[in-house]
Amino acid sequence: MSRKRLVMLFFGLGLAILLITMVTKAHVVTVKHYEVAIEELPPAFDGLRILHVTDLHSKKYGDKQKGLAELLDKEEYDLVAVTGDIVDMRNRSLEPATKFIELLGDKPVFFVPGNHEVKTGIEFRTKLDELEVTRLENRALKFQYGGQHIWLVGVNDPHEDRDKLANALSEVIDGSPRVLLAHSPTIFEQAVKQEIDLVLVGHTHGGQIRLPFLGVLFISGQGLFPRYVYGEYMEGKTTMIVNSGIGETVFNIRLKTNPEIVIVTLRPIS
């Protein structure tokens, strides 16, 4: 075999291994745990666990989302935050998203829309209402637990410039901690100015494709070399967690980032 053919063979083998790795990564869901310290957290909320899920994009994990069901059965949580794009505008079937929500059982579920829900009409919103999911679209509500409360604040999709954080915060009537649900991390600067305690977002898919040495080159809404890609960001009293999500757009492939669900445990500042 000539040197040229040998090089081509190794190149093709390497490419095949890379593609297999990228496809495999997209189907291995991890669970990421965070602890977030919050000022003046009511004692009843010390240890409260928020399950944060985002960006399913109508993806299936087995019949009736069996793969996700098996994963969630191993975890403990007290409420669920869903931050958009659990449906996909390229796949109009609502079944993957609704089957996923049905897995959450009797836990309270709070939802804010992403850019894909904006394009799927009112049918999905109607389904959420049937499943008794609370939609937080530019509004806030008092979440009570153990006789005390915090505020859950939700905005419509910042990626589509539909967020009205000031309107939502106008419904907050005391100084109890505030948890903000949004689809895109571009809400962070506003949240810092408003001294929001915790922000839960998705949209980025953790970059989906993270190149060696270069990292993530582009994210819609942030452009080239994005600032907010994945993980925990802190500024002032505000903590933001960017969840890589459990689905992908266009192609179900990932590189150097896994699909994930996130569990955030609230703690007081000692």
UniProtKB/TrEMBL annotation:
Gene3D superfamilies: 3.60.21.10. This is Metallophosphoesterase. It comes from Dethiobacter alkaliphilus AHT 1. Residues 48-206 form the Calcineurin-like phosphoesterase domain. InterPro entries: Calcineurin-like_PHP, Metallo-depent_PP-like, Metallophosphoesterase_sf. It comes from the Bacteria. GO terms for molecular function: hydrolase activity. CDD domains: MPP_YkuE_C. SUPFAM superfamilies: Metallo-dependent phosphatases. Pfam families: Metallophos.
